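Support request from a user on the community tier.

User writes: "When I paste my structure tokens into the form, the page sometimes reloads and wipes my input. The last time it worked, I copied everything first. Here is what I submitted, just in case something in the input itself triggers the reload:"
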């Protein structure tokens, strides 16, 4: 009679119990990544609350014009001496010059002093941010009241009816930024965090460019004709959107090339944690704390938001600088991506999330 063959002990299933399974499942790499996510979350909370919890006007650029130059200079000096320096006033030749500086985005408002009348006029541009124009109205209004004068507010670049708070430009740029780093992350997840060679790096950058062109156009069309939230040239917004998406995506690819899957988290740290609160969306730069006000213009969300508002409400005036910032991010990101791919000399990378080292097949 044939005796049953005993099954190997290994086939009997796990025998180490829960602690053994826990030790096998929670690797050092997984624990480090989770701690990294926790740090990213805390940085997100700190950055957003730090930027927005106590907006305080600081050195808002303001033109001051009057029929006589000494009157304008005196008014500018008086406003510049306000406690806390909320304004940065500068006397200009006349009202036409003040209006031109607003439309060129050199100043955020203008006070037109008329000694022959009891009221002066304040020119604001809510298209650059409703909170900024409101801050100007409150500060200048209080200063005028202390001099026994009234104030008439004139909005020379009003936000569109579908963009009552001037936030549509900011949210459009945020959407473009999200698309940029998510597209780059998907490219990494599908074929490893680090491009295996120059050819594959070029393919990724090419795919990212095609995505950026489509995302830029669709975003501009949705914000403009579909929702009626933003006026301005669709072609100009399309070009800006393409540049924003490609710049953020190239930055993400570069960080992935340098740090593997961790690079996705680093991209989120730069673009979302530091970039979005400092972008001048809810509170334009003069209302932000010093740190966020300093880094905002150099970050993709800040440069994109300023340029989008310039396209929508100021005929593109003032957009050249932010476009150069975005171009620098795009070129630097693409160059680092190609350099990292070339340095690997064809060595394949492990798939993202596999837990294998980058050199594993």
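"...and here is what came back when it finally went through:"
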């Amino acid at each position: 009679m044939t005796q049953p063959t005993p099954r190997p002990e290994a086939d009997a299933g796990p025998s180490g119990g829960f602690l053994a399974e826990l030790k096998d499942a929670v690797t050092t790499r997984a624990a480090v990544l989770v701690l990294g996510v926790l740090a990213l979350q805390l940085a997100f909370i700190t950055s957003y609350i730090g930027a927005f919890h106590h907006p305080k006007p600081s050195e808002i650029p303001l033109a001051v014009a009057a029929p006589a130059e000494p009157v304008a200079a005196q008014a500018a000096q008086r406003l510049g001496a306000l406690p806390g320096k909320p304004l940065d006033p500068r006397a200009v030749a006349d009202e036409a010059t003040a209006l031109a500086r607003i439309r060129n985005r050199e100043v955020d408002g203008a006070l037109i002093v008329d000694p022959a009348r009891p009221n002066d006029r304040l020119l604001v541009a809510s298209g650059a941010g409703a909170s900024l124009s409101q801050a100007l109205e409150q500060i200048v209004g209080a200063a005028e009241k202390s001099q026994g004068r009234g104030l008439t507010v004139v909005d020379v670049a009003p936000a569109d009816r579908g963009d009552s708070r001037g936030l549509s430009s900011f949210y459009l740029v945020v959407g473009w930024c999200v698309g940029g780093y998510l597209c780059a992350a998907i490219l990494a997840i599908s074929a490893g965090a680090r491009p295996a060679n120059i050819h594959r790096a070029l393919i990724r950058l090419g795919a990212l460019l095609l995505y950026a062109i489509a995302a830029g156009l669709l975003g501009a069309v949705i914000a403009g004709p579909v929702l009626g939230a933003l006026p301005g040239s669709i072609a100009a917004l399309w070009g800006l959107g393409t540049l924003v998406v490609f710049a953020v995506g190239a930055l993400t690819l570069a960080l992935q090339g340098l740090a593997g899957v961790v690079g996705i988290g680093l991209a989120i740290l730069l673009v979302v944690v530091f970039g979005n609160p400092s972008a001048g969306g809810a509170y334009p730069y003069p209302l932000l704390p010093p740190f966020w006000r300093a880094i905002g213009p150099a970050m993709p969300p800040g440069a994109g938001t300023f340029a989008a508002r310039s396209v929508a409400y100021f005929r593109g005036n003032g957009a050249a600088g932010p476009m150069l910032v975005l171009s620098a991010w795009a070129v630097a990101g693409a160059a680092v991506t190609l350099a990292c791919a070339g340095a690997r000399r064809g060595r394949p990378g492990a798939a993202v999330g596999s837990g294998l080292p980058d050199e594993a097949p």
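Agent notes: The reload is a front-end session timeout and is unrelated to the input. The chain has twelve helices and five strands. The CA atoms of residues 212 and 246 lie 5 Å apart. Escalated to web team.
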